[in-house]
Design goal:
Length: about 475
């Protein structure tokens, strides 16, 4: 059956590009209608587009497959923005008043406009999250209606690279699909992973992806910090590949034997891990390689969470993404971060309904489901929209045809009128021409035949002979 109302979300992951289509239900749940995945290791690097041509091909394949499954055309899609293209910067706008002034909505809006005009060279402001307002010497979340002489507005500006936005637009323009909205993937993910309580009491959401690790810190219900670390699960895989094995083999070894936190001294010296049928590696060495890289990633996460918020994470640390499935990942974070409360979010809190669609509950699908949940507009190519151009064309054709008929009718009437007015003259001219032609025919001598001409010449000769004078001939 053809789908008429649905939302399409595209996640540009470093290992795969995922496209899902779903329908929002009145009870707040989402029904998945279709899902397509394409490997993206040749076109997406650390969450950003670096090969436009290959990205276009991948996205085009996904859109076409979704169309088939939905039995409907797709007019627009929501695209998640993440990876190394993102970073956050704090900015403060200050205003001084001559006297006691009541803060109005207009004043707050003006401050927001000034912040949006901030120049970040090769980056643009994708989102601006208000942190708090300093009203004279007091901090307020909602300052409207309060009188003051000094007002400071603090923002967390989420930036994306201009080049990334240009490449992204170029890709979807080539595919022939509009971008309904660019959704900040970390924010969309937080909305379907974190509870309101966790956001209020303070927590850190760590998305352990294939190419990057994204850190989002929340406190008092607001996003306080966002950063992307250029290290992910693939970093561990490449370290294992240094043992002279293919990356695909290294990935399998990581999933089977890898551990984020291991007391290497407790591992027997003679225990080995088979790399292939001819080679093996000491398990102690293998685990050291894996844990060293995981330790580096967690140390970077800890560095990104400033001391200002590190002791305010009453909601703890929430891990998600494919990398959160590594064995002993929770003990590793607890030990290095010094935080007791750590949980893994292997699935979203939004009620997702699916029929005949397998949805992995290992954290790898959470981001694309968050992007889908953030969508609000119908992405289907409605029949009315499809017919708008045809209707307009038909209308234009009808108008042109009507104008042509009017013109033809007008010309016909003009000819008829002209014929009516000049008919007597025309008939008189034709009559005169006919009479002249008859006269010319009468006046024109008939051409004699050859026999008649010969007879005339003989007659003339005899007549000459009879009438000639004999004497004159003798002389």
């Amino acid at each position: 059956m053809e789908a008429k109302n649905f939302i399409v979300a595209i996640e540009l992951g470093s290992s795969k590009i995922t496209g899902v289509a779903g329908k929002k239900n009145p009870d707040g749940s989402i029904t998945l209608l279709a899902m397509v995945k394409e490997k993206s290791t040749g076109c997406i690097r650390k969450g950003t587009v670096y090969n436009i041509e290959k990205t276009v091909q991948c996205v085009s394949n996904i859109i076409n497959e979704l169309k088939k499954k939905l039995n409907s055309d797709i007019a627009q899609v929501y695209v998640g923005i993440g990876g190394q293209s993102l970073r956050s910067v704090r900015n403060t706008i200050t205003r001084e008043f001559d006297g006691e002034t009541v803060i109005s909505d207009e004043i707050i809006a003006d401050l927001a406009k000034i912040n949006r005009k901030e120049n970040y060279n090769d980056h643009i402001i994708q989102d601006a999250v208000v942190q708090e307002y300093k009203v004279d010497a007091r901090y307020q979340i909602e300052p409207v209606g309060i009188t003051c002489r000094h007002l400071e507005s603090s923002y967390l500006n989420i930036l994306t690279k201009k080049l990334f936005n240009r490449n992204l637009k170029s890709c979807f323009d080539s595919v022939g699909v509009n971008i309904a909205g660019q959704v900040l993937a970390p924010e969309a993910l937080a909305d379907v992973i974190l509870t309101d309580v966790e956001k209020n009491i303070g927590c850190a959401l760590i998305d352990l992806g294939y190419g990057t690790t994204t850190v989002s810190v929340y406190y008092k219900g607001l996003l306080r910090h966002l950063c992307v670390i250029p290290l992910g699960g693939n970093s561990v895989t490449r370290d294992i590949a240094s043992l002279q094995v293919e990356e695909s083999t290294a990935e399998g070894l990581k999933l089977r034997y890898g551990s984020a936190y291991t007391k290497v001294k407790d591992v027997p010296v003679d225990e080995t891990i088979s790399l292939d049928k001819d080679r093996s590696v000491e398990k102690k060495k293998f685990l050291t390689i894996v844990s060293a890289r995981i330790c580096e990633i967690i140390e970077n996460v800890k560095h990104q969470i400033s001391e200002e918020y590190l002791d305010k994470l009453a909601g703890g640390i929430i891990l998600t993404g494919g990398g959160s499935n590594m064995k002993d990942i929770i003990p590793a974070f607890k030990n290095i971060m010094g935080v007791d409360k750590v949980r893994i979010a292997d699935y979203v809190i939004t009620d997702i309904k699916s029929k005949n669609i397998f949805v992995a509950r290992d954290g790898s699908m959470n981001t694309v489901l968050g992007i889908l949940s953030a969508g609000t507009m119908n992405c289907a190519q409605l029949e009315e929209e499809e017919n708008i151009l045809e209707i307009n064309n038909e209308k234009e054709d009808a108008e042109v045809a009507e104008e042509s008929q009017t013109a033809l009718k007008s010309d016909s009437e003009s000819v008829k009128e002209e014929k009516t007015v000049s008919e007597p003259v025309k008939e008189e001219l034709e009559k005169e021409t006919s009479e002249e032609d008859e006269e010319k025919v009468e006046e024109k001598p008939k051409k004699p035949s050859k026999f008649k001409k010969m007879f005339t010449e003989c007659k003339h000769f005899l007549r000459t002979m009879v009438t000639e004078d004999p004497d004159e001939n003798d002389n």
